[in-house]
Specification:
The protein is built from four helices and no strands.
């Protein structure tokens, strides 16, 4: 009886749990799915990252041997395109700002003409409109100032990026 107990204790201390084959297969399948998802997500990221010079290098015959003129033309076109987009954005903000100022001026002129009525509700409406309009005008002015600051930084960043681009290294030589 003592020997049976000793044998049992030895067996209990050296227990080896065998994993079922189904559990191993399930873990492998999960690992394969994770690896596939990682590859798919990297492919999706690669597709989303569009090369900023591709539209400007379409007329280049050999991308491995770009001439100085082609590189200069691509650089200038790229910078010009960014400049046009930034100016267009500034124009949109300015247009909205001018519209808000015009609405406010029109409302002020209308109020001054009708001021003889001494209507308290009209005064409240006018004050509410003025405060809302001034708020919108202030926001638009802040957006315009912010756009002007970021536009210069964006332009400089693109210029530096173009200078560092290996395809346009001929411009540095």
């Amino acid at each position: 009886m003592l020997e049976l107990l000793k044998l049992r204790r030895r067996e209990e201390t050296s227990v080896v749990v065998d994993r079922p084959i189904f559990e191993t297969a399930r873990e492998r399948r999960v690992e394969d799915k994770t690896a596939e998802q990682a590859v798919e997500s990297q492919d999706a990221i690669d597709r989303l990252q569009v090369d900023y010079l591709t539209p400007f290098l379409q007329n280049v015959n050999d991308l491995n041997a770009i001439s100085y003129e082609e590189a200069q033309r691509a650089r200038d076109s790229c910078l010009k395109s960014l400049k046009e987009r930034l100016i267009e954005r500034a124009n949109i903000i300015m247009t909205r700002l001018n519209d808000e100022n015009a609405k406010l001026a029109k409302k002020q002129a209308t109020f001054q003409r009708n001021q003889r009525d001494n209507d308290p509700s009209a005064e409240e409406d006018f004050e509410r409109f003025c405060s809302e309009a001034m708020f919108r005008i202030q926001i638009l002015e802040q957006r315009l100032a912010s756009h002007e600051e970021t536009a210069l930084r964006k332009f400089q960043d693109l210029d530096e990026k173009l200078c560092a681009d290996p395809r346009l290294r001929i411009l540095q030589e």
